[in-house]
UniProtKB/TrEMBL annotation:
It comes from Kitasatospora arboriphila. SUPFAM superfamilies: ATPase domain of HSP90 chaperone/DNA topoisomerase II/histidine kinase. Residues 24-131 form the Histidine kinase/HSP90-like ATPase domain. Residues 86-105, 120-140 are annotated as: Disordered. Residues 86-98 have a biased composition (Basic and acidic residues). InterPro entries: Anti-sigma-factor_SerPK, HATPase_C_sf, HATPase_dom. Keywords: Kinase, Serine/threonine-protein kinase, Transferase. Pfam families: HATPase_c_2. This is Histidine kinase/HSP90-like ATPase domain-containing protein. The keyword Zinc-finger does not apply.
Length: 140
């Protein structure tokens, strides 16, 4: 048997954030896991981009979908996936927001910060997933 068969291939964390918990709890939770991965020390700009993306995706779930946000972070050694599921089947899209607008920039931010992102509907809503490669990795 090859020793690589026993190697850790991925790790992940999951948490449900009720509308009542606010976005702050999700940011703090994500930051703790980024600390555990060493990203806040070795890739602080990428860690900040991940936390901002978490904030935007949870905000979208709470405000636009009016639902709890199921947040999942998955690290596979190449990409940190940030996934947020909510109860709305409406897929997000980047949109233009005027200079005086107080909202409407969330998915544009995610698009600018993440190496890639996608959304997919399912039978009870949708999941939006963003991928972040640490600096020095392909795709960053």
């Amino acid at each position: 048997m090859d020793h690589r068969d026993n190697a850790l291939r991925a790790m992940g964390w999951a948490r449900t954030l009720p509308v009542s918990s606010g976005v702050r709890a999700g940011r703090a939770w994500a930051r703790r896991h980024l600390d555990a991965l060493g990203w806040t020390v070795h890739a602080p700009e990428t860690a900040d981009a991940v936390v901002l993306t978490v904030s935007e995706l949870i905000t979208n779930a709470h405000i636009h979908a009016r639902s709890d946000a199921d947040l999942v972070l998955t690290w596979d050694g190449s990409c940190l996936y940030v996934s947020v599921h909510d109860d709305s089947p409406q897929l997000p899209r980047p949109r233009e927001a005027g200079p005086e607008a107080t909202s409407g920039r969330g998915m544009r931010l995610v698009d600018a910060l993440a190496d890639a992102w996608q959304s997919r509907p399912d039978t009870r809503g949708k999941t939006v997933t963003a991928c972040f490669h640490p600096p020095g990795r392909p795709g960053h």
